[in-house]
Amino acid sequence: MKDATRAVTAGRNPGAHSGAVNPPVYHCSTILFPTFDALKASRQITSGDGVTYGVHGTPGTYACEEAIRALEGGFRTRLCNSGLQAVTMPLLACLSAGDHLLMVDTAYGPTRTFCDGMLRRLGVETTYYDPLVGGGIRELIRPNTRVVFLESPGSWTFEVQDVPAIAEEAHKAGAIVMMDNTWASPLYFKPFEHGVDVSIQAITKYIGGHSDLVMGAVTSNETVYPKVRQGWQELGLCGSPDDVFLAMRGLRSLHVRMPRHWEAGLKVGHWLMERPEIAEVMHPAMEHDPGHALWKRDFLGAASLFAFTLHEEFSTEAHLAALLDNLEHFGMGFSWGGYESLLIPIYPSRLRTATPWPKQGRPKGQSLRIHIGLEDTGDLIDDLAAGLDRMRRV
């Protein structure tokens, strides 16, 4: 079965819902049991399956989890109330006081905050590593390293990691490999085929696709799933019934939207490369990008989130205001993956410790992160052209 078919059919069971194509929204906390034996049986459930209590899942929850699992390729998926919860829950489930965590230096900002805050207070030490370390990660692994965490590409500077090489070394040392796979979505990177044990999705982004829900998903292989399931249950995480419905709605059209995002992102990226104000475009699916070879080897497609850097003479706040304040089709917002286009300034140097930014040989101008939505690409380019022209007049 191809992914397009999985995206449409996985998790559907009309026969269980009076023929309804979509699973109904179940608003429930209490589940009633018809007999004492049925009540006793519910207490024996240890896998997280079965409709026993609202926080443990409803038929809608399980349908959404199965649909995402079918695309990711893992053993089991569990839903969380945000993408950040999907990051923090498996870390808490798999780490204890005295353990060591290797975290990629390009990690999502709140992921770093969690490592430097709560994990540190709980006695877990975090070492940030160069995203381009590849098999050299072996030199950083300690006897107490329990988790190696990846995010490829990084959502600010877009370095592509050699996932199989890192996973191989981590597994030799008995460490669990976790990866934030939100950029590529379950369509364009298959984490479990490359050695990942736990794959994390911010459903808020491309799976949701409509900028109207906040949710996360954690998909595990069979070996690590018991730890993840226990952590998920003990923290009381779940997706709300209405958000589950929205996630399923978005998932059904993911295979249609993602090629459009891919194509439009490349078109705008190549156009930006030709503008004299632009010093660098950081997009792994473009041939000039340092991570292009790894992207071409491991990925099945590309997202429309990337970054670009302005030449130094255009990096003042006055220049940025001239570019951003009067854009017609680009909003300024901190999410991405929806149908609308976004553009914000970013400051990678504030979130890098293992590998200073900008790296040697890269321009030192202001960076901006751009998400290309589903608008007409020509209209988006015209909007950017007008903004860059305003910027030049400052």
From TrEMBL:
Which InterPro entries does the annotation name? Answer: Cys/Met-Metab_PyrdxlP-dep_enz, Cys_b_lyase_bac, Cys_met_metab_PP, PyrdxlP-dep_Trfase, PyrdxlP-dep_Trfase_major, PyrdxlP-dep_Trfase_small
Q: Which residues carry this modification: N6-(pyridoxal phosphate)lysine?
A: 205
What terms describe the molecular function in GO for this protein?
cysteine-S-conjugate beta-lyase activity; pyridoxal phosphate binding
PROSITE patterns in the cross-refs:
CYS_MET_METAB_PP
Q: Which cofactor does it need?
A: pyridoxal 5'-phosphate
Pathway note: Amino-acid biosynthesis; L-methionine biosynthesis via de novo pathway; L-homocysteine from L-cystathionine: step 1/1
Q: Which UniProt keywords apply?
A: Lyase, Pyridoxal phosphate
User: E.C. number, please?
Assistant: 4.4.1.8
Q: Catalyzes what? A: L,L-cystathionine + H2O = L-homocysteine + pyruvate + NH4(+); an S-substituted L-cysteine + H2O = a thiol + pyruvate + NH4(+)
For this entry, list what GO says about its biological process.
L-cysteine catabolic process to pyruvate; transsulfuration
Give the NCBIfam families listed for this entry. cysta_beta_ly_B
> What family is it from?
Belongs to the trans-sulfuration enzymes family.
Q: What name does this protein carry?
A: Cystathionine beta-lyase
> What organism does the UniProt record list as the source?
Thermohalobaculum xanthum
What lineage is on file? Bacteria, Pseudomonadati, Pseudomonadota, Alphaproteobacteria, Rhodobacterales
